[in-house]
Amino acid sequence: MSDKSKNWFMYIAKCSDKTLYTGITTDIERRIHEHNTTGKGAKYTRSRRPVELVYLVGFKDRSTAAKAEARFKKLSREEKLTIIKGTREFLG
What we know:
The chain is of the alpha+beta class.
């Protein structure tokens, strides 16, 4: 299955130490499960379990989702929290 036929998501997970982890995936339930219970989760989240999904936005393809992820990661923590709370929109 090509990337064009999938829906891609950028997600933000809040770790147990209150830090934020941002990633992209096509299957958010699987990805959060991996972060919390398997070795397939990101190295960053393995020592910060459990993680909780706090934000999710969909994109048409992997490229667009990855670009949005890169832009989001450049924001300050305060800007990220404002977006997560819904008081500011993130357009990717």
